[in-house]
Amino acid sequence: MNKLDYLTLMKKIFIIFFCLFALSASAMEKETTFNKDLFDKAQSDGKIVIVSSWIKYCSSCAGQMQILKKAKNEGVLSDIKFDNIEYFSFDVTNKEIANLFDVQYQTTLLIFKNNKEIYRSIGETTKELIYEALKTSI
Fold first, then answer.
1. Would you tell me how many other CB atoms lie within 10 Å of the CB of residue 133?
2. What is the CATH number of the domain that holds 48?
3. How many domains, the chain?
4. Which residue has the higher pLDDT, 10 or 25?
């Protein structure tokens, strides 16, 4: 294999790798579900409220969102019911929401209970640690 063939092959591998990475980062549909009125109502109803931030190209955001959606959709985790939890997410580039929570980074996870922030993490994508934070908030 001559140098030109090698460079062409490396270019193709790089393009394939880039496409796979880009697709994995956006494989999960992300949408802003945060609504201030619903957030306030959930708080006044005594619910535990989870808020997470994301950005379009972020694969760790998608991973964190999948963990949170799975916990919400299953409704049960180690014999603990999650029917008293509301989950919202927002694009961190939405400065109005980001400023409301003083969030500067994607993959920020917030948990509120009794109208107070009781948990904050940045970049946490480990299922066990996220579930532990959820369990301790109940």
1. 17
2. 3.40.30.10
3. 1
4. 10
